[in-house]
Amino acid sequence: MKTILVTGASGFIANHLIQSLAQDMSVRVIAVSRDCSGWLKDFKNVSYIFADIAHMNVPLTSEVYHLAGAFESKHCYDEKSNRPIP
What share of the chain is helix, strand, coil (3-state, %, to 5)? Predict the structure, then answer.
């Protein structure tokens, strides 16, 4: 069975990708989201992990679709100065 990791699972695009992948029962989907709001639906072959992808051990998978991202600039920081990037 192929395992696919999708980040940003509560977002519009990632959720539609998850819905499409979930139709194939030979695929196991691991969906990662920082929160449980948004477009999340219950599928038999989808496991949800509610965590920040930056602070978790990523499971071994066949494919990764990284669709997570900061949606406001105040969440992006310069690594050297630790200041927000406008």
Answer: 20, 30, 50
Is 78 in a helix, a strand, or coil? coil
Q: Flag whether the pTM goes above 0.85.
A: no
Specify the fold of 2-75.
Rossmann fold (3.40.50)
Domain ranges in the chain are 2-75
Handedness of CA 21, 35, 8, 15 (dihedral sign): positive
- Looking at residue 41, its pLDDT comes to 78
Single-letter amino acid code for the residue at 9: A
Q: Alpha carbon of 25 to those of 13, 21, 34, 52, 80: distances in Å?
A: 21, 8, 25, 27, 45
From edge to edge, which strands make up the β-sheet containing 63-66? 46-50, 27-33, 2-7, 63-66
